[in-house]
Amino acid sequence: MALTLGRKSGEKVFIEDEHGRNIEVEVIRAERNVKHALKLRITAPQEFNIVRGEIYNGNNS
Fold first, then answer.
1. pLDDT for the residue 26
2. What is the mean pLDDT for each group of 10 consecutive residues in the chain (61 residues)?
3. CB contact at 8 A, 23 and 44
4. Using H for helix, E for strand and C for coil, what is the string for the chain?
5. What span, in angstroms and rounded, lies between the C-alpha atoms of 45 and 22?
6. How many structural domains does the chain have?
7. What CA–CA distance (Å, rounded) separates 6 from 29?
8. Which pLDDT value is given to residue 30?
9. What are the coiled-coil residue ranges (predicted)?
10. Domain containing 16: what range?
């Protein structure tokens, strides 16, 4: 499943798992036509691994 949407600075998206635990993704900065223009804050329970895409190896090890 995929969801594509736009968010402005300060807006949030919540992802909830089957146990009711939430991951909160907040846009900290969103600017057009500027390098490194998007910053996100991800808040999740400690049991969740948060890994940048460029270092993710496709499994949870």
1. 95
2. 89 95 93 82 94 80 51
3. yes
4. CCCCCCCCCCCEEEEECCCCCEEEEEEEEECCCCCCCEEEEEECCCCCCCCCHHHCCCCCC
5. 7
6. 1
7. 13
8. 81
9. none
10. 12-55
